[in-house]
């Protein structure tokens, strides 16, 4: 999760998020190169004495400053398109999780299991403990196995919501009457936090999402305990 005075992205908890962070740094380096070059030229221009009133055209420099931006855009577009296709791909999911947005809480259904569903509310401030995070912890956490492709189906029961976990690189709109689909895979155990990222009403900021990533054996035991 994010921390105080954190100026960068959260640490990636999924392969897609790690690739997004790499693409962010890659694009930032290209922007830094462009800004440095332009700033140097603007700074050097007032002291440049190489002027000629007889030079009416410069075809070489015009060709250069036309082709160079096109090449730079290719270096940005190719990894961007690759990431877009990777984020849309659904790889033989191990299980399916359905998230339904309400005003103002989330409901979850484990579609592969019989009658495994629950509502997830934010823990009230007066019930917070030293180990819980204010406005982020929920009474019922989503328990998911790590290193397993998860298919997420998102919808809403009333107004627009948005199911978002920044450290997974997942942000999917929840639209009433429509199912949106995405997928992710968590690559380490731990607790991941997110919130509704759509302005959905007065209590919009009180719709947290909490995922507990566990091993496959722990997940099977958790499902068995709820089925009893």
TrEMBL record:
It is found in: Mitochondrion inner membrane. Binds a copper A center. InterPro entries: CcO_II (IPR045187), CcO_II-like_C (IPR002429), CcO_II_C (IPR034210), Copper_CuA (IPR001505), Cupredoxin (IPR008972), Cyt_c_oxidase_su2 (IPR014222), Cyt_c_oxidase_su2_TM_dom (IPR011759), Cyt_c_oxidase_su2_TM_sf (IPR036257). Its cofactor is Cu cation. SUPFAM superfamilies: Cupredoxins, Cytochrome c oxidase subunit II-like, transmembrane region. One of its GO terms (molecular function) is copper ion binding. GO terms for cellular component: mitochondrial inner membrane. The chain crosses the membrane at residues 27-47, 67-85. It catalyses: 4 Fe(II)-[cytochrome c] + O2 + 8 H(+)(in) = 4 Fe(III)-[cytochrome c] + 2 H2O + 4 H(+)(out). Belongs to the cytochrome c oxidase subunit 2 family. Component of the cytochrome c oxidase (complex IV, CIV), a multisubunit enzyme composed of a catalytic core of 3 subunits and several supernumerary subunits. The complex exists as a monomer or a dimer and forms supercomplexes (SCs) in the inner mitochondrial membrane with ubiquinol-cytochrome c oxidoreductase (cytochrome b-c1 complex, complex III, CIII). This is Cytochrome c oxidase subunit 2. It comes from Reticulitermes virginicus.
């Amino acid at each position: 999760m994010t921390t105080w005075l954190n100026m960068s992205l959260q640490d990636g908890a999924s392969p897609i998020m790690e690739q997004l962070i790499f693409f962010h740094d890659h694009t930032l380096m290209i922007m830094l190169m462009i800004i440095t070059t332009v700033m140097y030229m603007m700074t050097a221009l007032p002291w440049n004495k190489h002027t000629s009133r007889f030079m009416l055209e410069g075809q070489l420099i015009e060709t250069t400053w036309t082709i160079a931006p096109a090449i730079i855009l290719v270096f940005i577009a190719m990894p961007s398109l690759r990431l877009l296709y990777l984020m849309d791909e659904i790889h033989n999911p191990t299980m399916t999780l359905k998230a339904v947005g309400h005003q103002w809480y989330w409901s979850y259904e484990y579609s592969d299991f019989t009658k495994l569903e629950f509502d997830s509310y934010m823990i009230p401030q007066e019930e917070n403990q030293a180990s819980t995070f204010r406005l982020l912890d929920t009474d019922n956490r989503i328990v998911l196995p790590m290193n397993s492709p998860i298919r997420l189906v998102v919808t809403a029961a009333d107004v627009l919501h948005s199911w978002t976990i920044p450290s997974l690189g997942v942000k999917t709109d929840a639209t009433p009457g429509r199912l949106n689909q995405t997928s992710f895979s968590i690559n380490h155990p731990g607790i991941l936090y997110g919130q509704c990222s759509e302005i959905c009403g007065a209590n919009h900021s009180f719709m947290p999402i909490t995922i507990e990533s566990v091993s496959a054996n722990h997940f099977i035991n958790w499902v068995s305990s709820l089925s009893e």
